[in-house]
Amino acid sequence: EDFSAKRVRRTFVDFFKQEYGHRVVPSSPVRPRGDPSLLFVNAGMNQFKPLLLGCADPRSEMASYRRVVNSQKCVRAGGKHNDLEDVGRDVYHHTFFEMLGNWSFGDYFKVEACAMAWRLLTEAYRIPAERLYVSCFSGDEASGLPEDKETQQIWLSLGVHPDRILPFGMKDNFWEMGETGPCGPCTEIHYDHVGDRNAGKLVNADSPDVVEIWNLVFMQYNREGDGSLRPLPQCSVDTGMGLERLVTVLQGKRSNYDTDLFTPLLSAIHECSKVGAYSGRTGEADRNRVDMAYRVVADHIRTLCVCIADGVYPGMTGAELVLRRILRRAVRFSTEVLQAHEGALASLVPTVAHILGDAYPELHTETDRIMEIINVNEVQFLSSLKQGRRVIERTLNKMDGNTVIFPAAVAWSLHRNLGFPLDLIDLMLEERGMSVDKPGVERLSAEHDELQSRSEGDAGERGLHSDLQSLSELQSRGIPHTDDSPKYSYVL
Ligand code: ATP
Ligand code: MG
Ligand code: MG
Ligand code: MG
What we know:
18 helices; 13 strands; 17% strand; binds magnesium ion; Alanine--tRNA ligase
């Protein structure tokens, strides 16, 4: 059977459109419009937030939506949903992923939502029911939220075995968009990759053997600025299923990176590298972290392409700063671990467009611009990377051989003066069995912010990076920045 990603995506949309009268709505760009509570679009429901809150402009097209289906470009690399640290380490969290979703805005509720989901998975996609677990909200006394017994009953009536219906609390089964915004109890569907009778223990336990694939959220509240829960004017359904994880299941793989969404990209990365091909190892088995590097580069290049196509460029504040970090991590893994040549990252862009361009045509039309921006930024970072590595070497040479804590002042200077993401410094040191003096760095960062806000009356990220603003301006105009010379504030 053809379970290509393209087909799987289309089957989802067609199922809800043809079988249950849902209207197909395109993905919104990943840059959130008019929502300061978000860095990136992190779920399919973001663009429908006004509808869920009951405050959509009655003249807008959205106001007439009752049943909707789409596949949404999502980025989870900042804010409440931030998976950046997991990417590359595991095989099922990405910074960019596609979320397949269906919605009911004040139309159907729990019974229909569960029945539709179950039918799609077990009939259209033919996933064996014995491999599926469902979770239900167990309630939360502190918030006065009751256990969701109704949903348990619904799953039982759909024929789910009682042993495969599991209760979980706020962390896993109460979904929230961000610090504020629509939220509600949810019921999730998890897939057992092994077929083990004890797999239930691994649900929500960060195990690659049992992976969450679909979340059905029953939107009933809004989390207000003061932390309280305000009931919404109407009950809605908001679901989200990770396309990459679903495709992995349907293609009989254990890793998202072994599906057709990634394999052409991993081959293209191999072409640019001077190391062996991707072999899928994780953890300790992945010596020298070559496989992790493959995964990080494959993940990050997708995110870079999608973000740049949607007008988020690597820069100095907010989402732009996050994207800059992502770019720098990608450059570092590709050049240092995979020993790829300069310009390798940009050369992967057409492959990303080839894989995803059908679903998101802007990747085709924007290919040249994406490549140019990636190249400008890569050149710039490679020169600071070279200097940074020298600084680290020199510092290590001067240090007492027994110390494993790297001085905060040097780390902070690398960050401030050479624009090193702090997590990148962590990684570079971790490989040498060292770690940064984190409390020290936090102190320096706090002192810096303090000084900045006193001198400018402007606290926050803008102040923190103000001396790099000019560089950002050059970048945003596409002009390569050449003066990357270090400005050390102390003697090394
Ligand atoms: P997890 O517990 O695995 O981190 P989640 O509970 O944070 O997932 P939801 O917010 O419920 O995820 O999102 C709905 C669906 O989107 C998930 O069931 C999963 O299939 C998919 N998903 C979530 N985060 C990612 C990610 N970082 N990469 C790929 N798919 C993801
Ligand atoms: Mg998560
Ligand atoms: Mg989860
Ligand atoms: Mg979830």
